[in-house]
# Entry
Amino acid sequence: MALLNFRKRETTAAPANGALEAFLQGYSIEVMPRTAEKVEDFRALLPEGTRVYIAHIEGTPIEDMVATARRLSADGYPVMPHFPARIIKDKATLADWIARYQGEAGVEQALLLAGGVEKPHGDFHSSMQLLETGLFDQAGFKRLHVAGHPEGNRDIDPKGGDKTVMEALRWKQAFSERTDAQMALATQFAFDAGPIIAWADRLRSEGITLPIHIGIAGPAKLQTLIKFAIACGVGPSLKVLQKRAMDVSKLLMPYEPTEVLTRLAAHKAAHPDFNIERVHFFPLGGIKTNAQWAIDNGGASGQPAGR
# Structure
């Protein structure tokens, strides 16, 4: 299939509505080295200045991660690689990764997270430990994002609830207040706007004011999304997909995030202080498909990512 030509479509794409177009400004997207290899030219897909996260899956060599970061950075994209605490052996390894990203690709942003590994490979098991090393500050990283979980996380709170998750968020809020780090919460994806809005409002009411970059699954086959949702521990909003799967007329139709994003965009338009400031796409159905959906819904006018 021919690559989408972003620049040619830029002047013709019509946004679904003004609120959604505004909500999509500055969106980010996630890639892995093996999926990035399949993209001939990112500049034909993504607006200039789009922040691109690089997911670090267990077993991926750091050399592949840095090479992907170098390529994207050379194309003019702000790059934010994952630093999964549980696959980083020790402080020396962390320092080496930071130096490689910075020296070879000019990286100055990072997403710090525990990582989906049950048993840590070494000294670290949480993003808080990575922050406490001080290495990112010493290297002059300007932006540090941490994970958010609108529907909880059973890896952190195995018995359910969100007691431990909330304690971690309070710690990260305090860290952001006592340092000059520019921080935000990049969240797991969800499919129902209601729980997302309730979660964001609850954080603000409890004094957690870190900007939220809400995770959204891009267009994909329904079966693919359900598989990823179960594997990633998506909570109550999984019912949105399960209900759709029961409708034979919709079972074979690709899922698109139009409904959830339209509702979130409308809420943001009505409540400008709503703490969700950006959309972060997980392109589970492919980056080209996700990029085209964003263009068709107003993302063609995406601006360089701010907060």
Remarks:
- The first strand starts at residue 28 and ends at 31.
- The mean pLDDT is 86.
- The radius of gyration is 19 Å.
